[in-house]
Amino acid sequence: MTTRRITQLIKAQPVREGAGVTVHRTIGTPALRHLDPFLMLDHFSSDDPDDYIAGFPDHPHRGFVTLTYMLNGHMLHQDSMGNRGDLRSGGAQWMKAASGVIHSEMPQQTDGLMRGFQLWINLPAREKMSDPAYQEFAPDAIPNVEHDGARIRVLCGNYRDVRGPIDDPNTHALYLDVALESEGRFVQALDPDLNAFVYVFEGSATLADTALPQHSLAVLGAGSELQVIAGKDGARFILVAGRPLREPIVQYGPFVMTTREEIEQAFADFRDNRLVRAKAHWISGA
Ligand code: FE
What we know:
There is one protein chain. The chain is mostly beta strands. The chain has a single domain, classed as Jelly Rolls, CATH 2.60.120. It is about 5% helix and about 50% strand. β19 and β20 form a beta hairpin. The radius of gyration is 18 Å and the shape is globular. Bound molecules: fe (iii) ion. The site of fe (iii) ion has 6 residues, from β5 and β10.
């Protein structure tokens, strides 16, 4: 067993997104453009409605998957496939934008804590223009495992013998939400072929003797297992891993393709109301 070490530590950068929502970005910043197959990681966490109330009105995506994990709060999702779904504390949503989706993500609360993560996962070139798809996972669909003073929610992949309900078939992604007690230890075997990161969002921890500060993303180097040890106040973090696609990435805002021409096509399709093939006249709430 070789222990994975931290190769890069990326401090989250505040970014205004949607109609004026403050998110904290790590993957998708100048310091870390991508971590193949991951294109973007936004953490949102605020109990100030001014940071989230404007929400994310209708906007397009093409060429990748969005995986949203809601820790606290309530959002309503509506999309051009005709889906309407509630995202509540502890629930998750996997949306394959592929050839094109227009959707909105709007807060259903006027106060209180809104907290979670949105991860963008790339699609292989052969699937970028395939049909979009959408799946929602209620809080109780995500298994909770208690082990050695740790509480692990398994969103994707396996923790011990427990399998998470979300499957990202191209990247075999692993996505765990781990809560450790004071000085608790978490050990996980990890396929050496997967790119992986850890993001601490409560307390603090160390990984292979290196500090994992809160609200920073730690990129993990080569190895077949990792060990995280919580600090005195405990720690809560996400561990995410996925198989790299090793394809060119050309990204422009909400479109991620493999060539410049495909990006231009995405803009033209959006402008001409052709991004969404099935329901070109769709407007959320209409
Ligand atoms: Fe979106």
